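This section describes the prediction task in plain terms. A model, or a person checking by hand, is given the sequence of a single protein chain and must write out its three-dimensional structure as a string of tokens. No templates, partner chains or ligands are provided. The sample shown here is typical of the held-out split.
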Amino acid sequence: MLQNRVDPFGSIIKTPARGAWLGNRGVIHNARQQIVRPYKLKAWITCALNFKGRHRQIMQPDRWTELFFLDEATAFSAGHRPCAECRYPDNRRFKNYWLKGNPQYGFDMKTPLKQIDDIIHAERIATDKSKITYSNNLHTLPNGTFVSLQGNAYLVNNKQLYLWSPGGYDLPIPCPDAGEVSVLTPRSFVNMFTAGYVPQMAVVQ
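The expected answer:
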């Protein structure tokens, strides 16, 4: 079993459960297919599982490391954004709503993605490689946001919380009157959700 699945904390874990999305952070494995670093590039992306009939052998030497996600909300929580090649329409939608949600930067649709990636990178991972979180009121968070409660990751959706696991979500519970909670999803992505971007979520409606 390979270590290639990403959880909402951004950690790369081993699990037999399959993912709905592919992604990468550059070449982060060695010749023995072991993860040896958390990332190589600042452009962390989420890709479609199928694109133009292409097939890849997982974790080839000196090729980017294939990572997998339960759903798009998980990928965003980990700090990944849509790929500009295999998910071009999603990438355009992402950029449009990211700009709407984060006007303080003065960016527009002509701004290179690299400048957005630099901001996302500063929001998702600290200098010691730990996950950056921040506090916010649970009841103000938009659908698709992940929060941490008692060390577990929960998805916020329709005023309910869904406990994340590699194989899917538990049955929802009502959002508690918790006040301030630790938010896992990077701040600019949360702003983007508030502006109208709805991530794909593997929850039963």
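For orientation: The CA atoms of residues 58 and 66 lie 6 Å apart.
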